[in-house]
Amino acid sequence: MTPEEEQLKQEAIAKTNAIISDRVGNYQNHPFFVKMAERAKAFIEAHGLPKEIEERMRKD
After folding, report:
1. pTM for this one?
2. Pairing with 33, which of 9, 26, 41, 42 sits 20 to 30 Å away (CA)?
3. Burial of 53 (C-beta count, 10 Å sphere; 0-12/13-18/19+)
């Protein structure tokens, strides 16, 4: 892991102001998120993934 990735990981762990609640609804099928997911899938199909992500996927 590069130093930059390690720093990002530590910063993400340090954030504690998230609120986790069982009362939050499920927005998985909300029209906004479905639309954004479809756009992202179409973009990736047309242009492919960034090289960095493809390299990481090959390593795993």
Report:
1. 0.51
2. 9
3. exposed
